[in-house]
Amino acid sequence: MQTLADSPQRQSFKRYALLASTVVAVALLTAPRSTAAEPNDPNTPPAVTQPTPEPAIATPPAEPEDAKPAAEADQTPPEPQAVEPLEAPPAPPPSDIEPLAGENGAEPTHNANLKFDLMPRMKTPTMTWIAVVLILALTLQTRPTWFTWHNLDGLALAAMCVLMAIRADDGVLNSGGFARTAQWWSFVGLTLIGGYFLLRGLNLVATRRVPPFGANVNEGAMCVLVIAAGLVAFQRIAEADYSPASRDGFVGALQILEHGELPYGAVDGHDARSPLVYGAHALAMQVPYGLDLDLRTLRLSDRHSWERAGWWRDNEIMPIRLVNAALFVLLLLGVAGIGHRQHSVAMGQTLVAIACIFPGMLDCLSRPEIMIPTVLMTWSLAFLRVPMVGPLMSGLLLTAAGFGWVWAWLGLPVLIAHEAKRGAAHGVGAVVGSAAALIGGVWLIATFTAPSLPRADGALAAAGIQPRFEAKLNGDSITVASIEPSTPESSMLAPMWRLLLRGGQPTLGDAIAASHSGYKVAPEAASTPLQEIAASGPVRGVIQAGYQDLMAGAAKLERARMSIRTALESTWKPERTPMRGEYNAWRAWLGDNPRAVLVRRIVRIVAALLGLLTALAVMRSDRAEQHRVVGGLLAVMCAAMLAGTTGMVTNLALITPFVLAALAVKTDEDVAVRRRAAGEPPSTATPRITVEAGGS
After folding, report:
1. pLDDT of residue 413
2. How many other C-beta atoms can be found within 10 angstroms of the C-beta atom of residue 81?
3. What is the pLDDT of residues 134-176, one digit of tens each?
4. DSSP conformational letter for 426
5. Residues 666, 142: contact at Cβ < 8 Å?
6. Which residue in 5, 58, 300, 539 is a FRET match for 116, CA 20 to 30 A apart?
7. Residue 442: which H helix or E strand, with range?
8. d(CA 132, CA 274)
9. pTM, rounded to two decimals
10. Is-contact 217 140, C-beta < 8 A?
């Protein structure tokens, strides 16, 4: 009789717990505590396109300009040198592509104070070929045949590793009339592979039989491989530069902890991220050792002074590291759960090893705006096979992921259709979980966001409203001058923005009176509605203070509508776009073509229709098979990536869990059970009995 201590479930739990603790312990021991070397700024141009020779005499490197306005640039003078340095070569022109840590020959930063350092320094080409070899070794199988879907999946993942390594290479590969850069060809290849995985998902939806995919490596050897791959990933987390989203999350967390409000409309330049990003960093800052001593004095009231000093370059900010490490650990546990529940323990280890070494995942480890929805979608897949609470948690987590990546909501029809096919109770559970996450998220945003004055280039422009006046400070009074209204932009969501702007728009005189600022307003300007006034600079702060006081006394429904509008305006129409440095396939395809907006709208509509049609196909299938929902979600998420702003050339961590789940999924039951469920007659073949002849 098998006891609980010897059960496979307990053995698996011990194995994964030992594996996770070993990886985290070694990663923490080898993580740098302070960075004395030159920071690897993401705005540094790729060295492969503009090689910069090293000066004859070592000089302090010039501080690269950060992605912020010129008025906030770092003005700290360099330290004097005893030896006059030679003239440095001219700096290469700025690039709009943000290289990865260690990409294009740029070594990651490391702790120069350590006397020994056992962590390897692997550049992008080395990491690329290690990933290619590992993925092919774990996925390729020759029996019973070479041509299988699983082998194609492995080849596609390996090709993505190579194509990602040349995304920043602007060297021309061919000459003549059709000369294109290596970057352009990599975009083409990644887009085609995205189309392949879309078709792969649709094939899983349509097929009735999915043969099991056996692991190539036994469990003991896989443990060693997972530890080695995990150390590589944790090294990337420990040494990566702080991404713009991490810095925004840290500043937004200060707003939450100091004022109890989300930073939307209150912290200019740092309020364009998901509320999940700010919440995660605020939670990490509650850890006792979460802040260095010199960072504990940071306050939002004087943030313009410490932002100019480049606080993220000279300090080891543990809350950011803690968020990135915790998200990656949660991701690995979710991936292991997917492989274990859908296949076996060995398959769970295989998927974890691929996730640790895949460049599409390593690319996003220091980007919480990508990792948070990725983790939520991973656990949504992991809960598919959990009895009782599985449908509820899957719907809740997939809906919550939409607050970080709105395209995740395209997978909800597929998930609900699958659970409804399993039974009425499962369908109700998925709907209840989705509704709870949606209502809870909207309530949190509406409750903890202070309404802000709508911007002329934000919500007003999206609603097709163009201000006719401009407010200015003139001594102790505020004057209003007429301006020529511009042509309103065409937007599919203009009716939604007009609905959010309806009501809650007092006059200029009411706002100035409520602000108690002492400024005076001319009688002819006092009755001007705020929707018709463009305000920027100091005058906007005066008007917004009065506007927020008026909204604090407004009806709850009206205030909630203005809070939701503020959050959507900050994230969808940011004052300073956070997309700088992103790879963008649509920009490579369409450029400045005037029909680019129309083409992208058509592609997005097609992606939405594909999600609905896939859900219908899952609902009309003969039975609720696990591989169908995994294939449907894979197809929908690949379509969302192809239709997204950047295309299928970056942020590939978002689809990695679905690709890995497609490797592990298999048909749930045997042929006889499936025939009975489909109403087919049982097999009437006469059983063959073999008798061995032999003597005594």
Report:
1. 95
2. 11
3. 999 898 887 777 788 889 999 999 999 999 999 888 888 766 6
4. H
5. no
6. 58
7. helix 424-447
8. 33
9. 0.79
10. no
